[in-house]
Amino acid sequence: MGCGNCSSHGGGLPNGCKNNGACGTYGCNKLEVFDWLSGIELPAGHKPFDVVEVRFKNNRKGFYRNSSALDLQVGDIVAVEVSPGHDIGVVSLVGELVRVQMARKEVKDNYEVKKIFRKARQEDIDKWQECRKSEQDVMMRARTIARALGLEMKISDVEYQGDRTKATFYYTADDRVDFRELIKRFAEDFRVRIEMRQIGYRYEAARLGGIGSCGRELCCSSWLTDYRAVSTSAARYQQLSLNPAKLAGQCGKLKCCLNYELDMYVEAIKDFPSVNVKLRLPKGTAVHMKTDIFKREMFYVYEGQYSEAPIVLSVDAVKEIIHRNKQGIEVADVEEFIVTEVVEPKENDFAQVVGQDSLTRFDKSKRSNNRNKNRGSRDKRGPRDQAPAKKDGPRPPKPEGKRDQGNRPPKQENRPSGDRNNAQADKPRNNKPSGNRPPRKDRPPRDNKPSSDNSNNA
Length: 458
Prior knowledge:
The chain is α+β, with helices and mostly antiparallel strands. It is 26% helix and 15% strand.
């Protein structure tokens, strides 16, 4: 996302902002100050403050005196005094708030404050934009030269002066670098005055921008304005594992966010007993393993039994045990001090957002629904003997012999006497002609298969 009017990267660039990722969340204006005095009229006879704040590339700011009494507003492009020549910047703050900003940054209002020449003309703006366009190519060329000379340094950014008479190269290095030969090569290739300025790794990360491990844009490139020192004690107070891969940011230093909640952790552990004190328990001496600050619990293990389950004690219990150890009172049973968690069932105090339907109503199989329907309809037909449920007791033994038939009528065991053929003859046979089919009594029995000769004779 480009910002055409980005004051920190040369406002009015047609190609937008390409120097870092801060513009994605309005990071280019992270140092803006809300002018709450803009709509208030000053008392009669009071002259407005004649110093204005001007911003340059990469959020670099300076204070300049408006000696010509120009009518300047926030966003105006002006030409300011530098040594030597002039530079182009954007006005970021005017009025009485500039006096407050100068006091906060300890800038004295004396003769050292340089002045504003004029509002930038069109030719000044065109030249300024050409300088901004060529900075990327110049940085790539400068890195190639530094690598050819074998210098252990990294050039992270280049900034041209508004009149294109000087170029400032920002670099990072672990050790001291002898760049005298490098400056000669730069002067021959770029034909401008060269200034080398070393910056820290945090400033480099703020210039480049990026996404942190939290998934958000880097604090240093979005809103953080000052970089405070971060030590490993901040991680120890918060009970974090001292893993450099997790505690280090993109700059290679400890993350700035380790200081955000440090004061609350320091305040919370003030009444915690010292972790260096050992507890004398019935089974031996226990040493501190870890601490859960939020639950106010401390974990201890016996010396030499580090693979065993730790003993969880509350802060008050640890204080009581330490007090008894100092008084010489032996702890008879440590079980009375162990924290036992009672898990109570939680009631759902929320209501369904989407109507009163179940969210899993489509997960039920149709087969089970049909089975339940058939079972319900079968129960409506009438009373039937049903076996008792499993939960009421053991299943009753099955009766010997045949299964109980319920209310069904018994089968007739005694059939009428007579020949089977006569009984079959009384029933109609669908009026089919018999043809040459032999009578039923002459047919051989089904169990005995006829021979091939009999079949031929038939």
